[in-house]
Amino acid sequence: MKNIYRVTRxxxxxxxxxxKIVILLxxxxxxxxxxxxxxxAAALLGPWVGRQPIHHVxxxxxxxxxxxxxxxxxxxxxxxxxxCYPSTFIYCFYMPDDSIPSGKAPVVGFCHIKxxxxxxxxxxKGASFVWNNGHIDIHSRTGFTSTEVRGTKEAEEVTxxxxxxxxxADWRNRTYHYGVLRFQLASGDMTVxxxxxxAGYLLSTNKxxxxxxxxxxxxxxxxxERYDKGLVTENDIRxxxxxxxxxxxAKLDTMLGSVPPPNLWRSENLMSTSKPNIWKHQxxxxxxxxxxxxxxxxxxxxxxxxxxxxxxxxDAIRCFKGLAVEKAVLERDNVVAYERALKHxxxxxxxxxxxxxxxxxxxxxIYGQIAPYLxxxxxxxxxCGNGLIADLARGHFKEIQLLDVVRYLPNALHLxxxxxxxxxxxxxxxxxTVLLLTVLHHSKNPVELLKLAWNxxxxxxxxxxxVVDVHKAEPSASYELLGLPIEDQxxxxxxxxxxxxxxxxxxVPVPYNFTTPEQWRSIFLENNMRLTQQVxxxxxxxxxxxxxxxxxxxx
Length: 555
Fold this sequence. Notes:
Layout: H1 4-8, H2 17-49, H3 51-82, E1 87-94, E2 106-116, E3 121-132, E4 135-154, E5 157-166, E6 178-185, E7 197-204, E8 219-228, H4 234-256, H5 263-267, E9 274-276, E10 282-284, H6 286-290, H7 296-309, H8 314-330, H9 335-345, H10 352-370, E11 378-382, H11 388-393, E12 399-404, E13 417-419, E14 431-437, H12 446-455, E15 457-466, H13 486-503, H14 517-526, E16 531-538, E17 548-554
Parallel strand pairs: 11-12, 11-14, 12-13, 14-15
Antiparallel strand pairs: 1-2, 1-8, 2-3, 3-4, 4-5, 5-6, 6-7, 7-8, 9-10, 15-17, 16-17
Helix pairs in contact: 2-3, 7-8, 8-9
């Protein structure tokens, strides 16, 4: 497939290197023949037939030799253009579950590519099979035939495009019937790379032509390699696929885990769409962050840290990260399915005692940060979560009230708790100290919640909030993403927020309403809220390493 551009490139296009060499050699041969051909023949044959007969017959020899030479040159050039074909390639893809009626997603397959010398077209034909627990499902065979095969070249990288129709007899095996396969030589720094290994990408097309109203857009990523220079029988290919399918998927997994990913996948917009939060900042999906080459080292480091704190072994963490990448590709447009897959991948791995220790450590750190600003006799903790921070502070107050949209509070704490519906009044009387600890970015309307909390405060409103667009180093406030743009800081914060609250825990709202410290200070000022303390805490919490700032608002 790496030669497809040379094969399908129009003859009238600018001559390439190979064609220049052919033209140069042809010119040299013609020049040598025209200048010395007759002399060479006279010297070679003159002693037997004489020079005069050679001189008389040479014009006829010229016609025959030049004509035959041109015909031979054209034939050799045609073979040179398509000399790499026919060839047989084998491949594997992780298909979305909803692309196959049976719901079985991994597939293996083969593709014959050959040149039709009569029509001048490159033709591809092949079939795929569901890969079911290490075996080929023969009954799932789905054949396809190309409608067009062409190559493109950009920045010295060749991409093979195979537009195909699924064989009508096999339409029942797929929820789409038309598509394009794209293959590009794997990047040179990848461990699976050889001169004949390729990154693959599949996209369904011509949706409007589908008779099936449930037809969907399908995106899938795969791996391919050249199996043989020639056309191999399907029975032999099936044997090869059955014996080596797991090897192909292992190579695909290596590609999926590579940083950066193959250029083909980046060019096909593997980084999926983002949505604006309430502050109009674009927030990418967790899947796209997981596949973001720039952020991947930071995400890997975070997962290593938080999962080890929750009791996972190094091997278990490595396997889980592989799963996270694989599912990010398979579920690139379905965050609910991605969340479910990762939660399922952690079943039985988290050690409850380690989780409790990590959560208690988080509570102790935050309590130590807010303790100097606790005052009065009453405390209202809005968005209290598991209640551990309020439990540590109970000795300071005569009255404590906890609020949250879901009850995460264990009964063993014996603290007063009320469910709160966002947008409703908070409480029927004010409190001396009110807490909003990493809560505002979880609110659908953080400014309104801030106003309600301020109105419920008689002395101190203590806020710890995750912020972005931080680029100045602060004393004792570490931040690994200091040099990254706001878009990357938001992406990292959103992934951490999602993973901690939706994968490690359950049902915590995550609207990702992160914004800048300047935005919060401006809001405080606009609403006549007196800011008396601002403390940069940095990435102070290992299990949730967003950048935190402590704000104290005083009546």
